[in-house]
Each structure stands twice: as C-alpha cells, then as structure tokens.
Design brief:
mainly alpha, 12 helices
Length: about 270
C-alpha cells in the first residue's frame, strides 16, 4: 500500500505528460526529445526510489531514497517541463495561483522547512513506523524539490532580478543548508534515530550507518551542485556575449537586459 501511494502519482504524471506531448507534436510544436527523456528519467527515479530495498533497516538506504526522490527525480522532472506542456494546468485558477511557490524567496524557505522538519526525530521515526506517513514524507520531499529546482530551471518566467548570477547564490545556499544537516549526521557522535540502533546489517553499526547517510547526502549534493554551477557559468557567459552584441547594435540597455534575461535576446539581433 505504501509503495502504491508513492508510485501512483508518478503513473498519473507520466500519462498526463506524454498525452500532452503527443498533442503538441500533432500541432507541430513537439516537446524536445531531451526534455521527454528527462521526464521519463524522473519517473524511473521515482519508481526506483520507492522500490529500494532495506530502507527500513539502514539509514544510508533511506537517505539514498531521499536524495533520489527529492533531488535527482525532482530536477529531472522540472527539466522535462515547458510552458506549453503546463498550459492546460495553468488555465485552472487554483493551479495558476500556485505559481507563487516557484518564486525563489518562497521556494527556498519552503524547501528548507521541509528538509529539516522531516529529519526531526519525531517526524522521521513516525514515517518509519507508519506507511502512510512514509509515503507522505516522500511526496513532500519530491514536491519541495520540484519547487526548489523550478526557481533555477525557470520553466515559467521568474522575477527580473533573479537572473543567472543570482541563481549561483541560490544554488550555493541550497547546498549550504543541506551540508549543515549532513554534517550533523556525520559528526553528532550519537545515534539520532533510535529506530536504527538494533537494525544493523552487513556489520555496520547504527552510528556508522548514520555517518554514511550524511556522507551520501553531501556527496550527491556536491555532484549536483557542480553540474548546476557549470551550467549556470556557461549560461552566464553566453548571456554576457549576447547582451554586449545587442548594446553594440544600439539596442536600449534595459531592453537588451530584459530580452537576454528572458531568453528573447536573439530575436533582437540585427534589429538595433
């Protein structure tokens, strides 16, 4: 039942997404193959995370679940989205109002609150003891991850001030917040979750298990951060070159800045 609660939303998302992608393809505006691949990958990661063995016996496995579902699957999910794909949902007023969740000043606090709240012993162990709460925990991690990454990938236009440079700081803040928690698990010196004290496998003590869990959180976060920062660096360089070309062509500086910020700079080239 717990697995069903976690997998069912992925099945629904997949059916809705690929139906919409097929519709757009029929209209002559297909979704790029790499976006569809990213979305399919997110569904595989969600399913793989939900089916991961030994999650109730090793903290390191449960942590792996969290980073797969709440970070990797969420990122791949957002990369797969486009404005046209989301248009039918955004036409619904209740859904449209949820766009505020993608604002960086909303997304980052929500993501942080979700991360730390679910790792409080009271809530974390409740998830370990109750299947429905466990499913809710994973849904919350995925939803918070989607909101957090949506501000960076920016499927829908964000605030003008939150350009590529600001996103550098945002991504670094995300990893700093996560690193603090990871270090708590590595260096606490005491077992934070008594649930794991008598469940050691493969000769791993509960304290070693906890240290490995923190290490997994930090290593995964570091690798994803390096990738995200590399992408942002290349994007920043390309935007700088395009903005300079527009200025040299006589385009108004504010117009050039806004056009580059929202991905319309190339439309102005040659029109200055």
């Amino acid at each position: 039942m717990t697995i069903l609660l976690q997998v069912a939303p992925a099945v629904v998302f997949g059916a809705m997404y690929f139906r919409r992608a097929w519709t757009l393809s029929q209209r002559g505006t297909p979704v790029a193959w790499w976006r569809q691949t990213a979305f399919a990958l997110s569904l595989l990661l969600l399913g793989g995370g939900a089916l991961m063995p030994y999650e109730d016996e090793l903290f390191l496995v449960h942590m792996t679940q969290h980073v797969v579902i709440g970070d990797l699957a969420a990122l791949a999910f957002v990369v797969g989205l486009t404005g046209p794909v989301l248009r039918p949902l955004l036409a619904l007023e209740p859904v449209s109002r949820l766009r505020i969740l993608g604002h960086p000043l909303v997304a980052l606090p929500l993501w942080t609150l979700n991360l730390y709240l679910w790792h409080l012993p009271r809530f974390y162990e409740a998830a370990l003891h109750h299947g429905a709460i466990h499913a809710l925990e994973h849904i919350c991690f995925f939803a918070a991850g989607v909101i957090m990454w949506a501000a960076v990938v920016e499927v829908l236009p964000g605030p003008e001030w939150f350009g590529t440079g600001a996103k550098f700081g945002y991504v670094l803040a995300v990893r700093l917040i996560e690193t603090v928690l990871g270090n708590v698990f590595i260096w606490s010196g005491t077992v934070i979750y008594p649930f794991y004290e008598d469940r050691g496998r493969w000769g791993i003590s509960a304290l070693e298990d906890q240290g490995w869990a923190g290490t997994i959180m930090m290593v995964e976060g570091s690798l994803v951060t390096i990738g995200a920062l590399a992408w942002l660096f290349l994007k920043l360089a390309a935007e700088g070159e395009l903005r300079q070309r527009l200025l040299e062509e006589g385009v108004d500086p504010r117009t050039a800045r806004r056009a580059v910020r929202y991905g319309r700079g190339k439309e102005l080239e040659g029109a200055g």
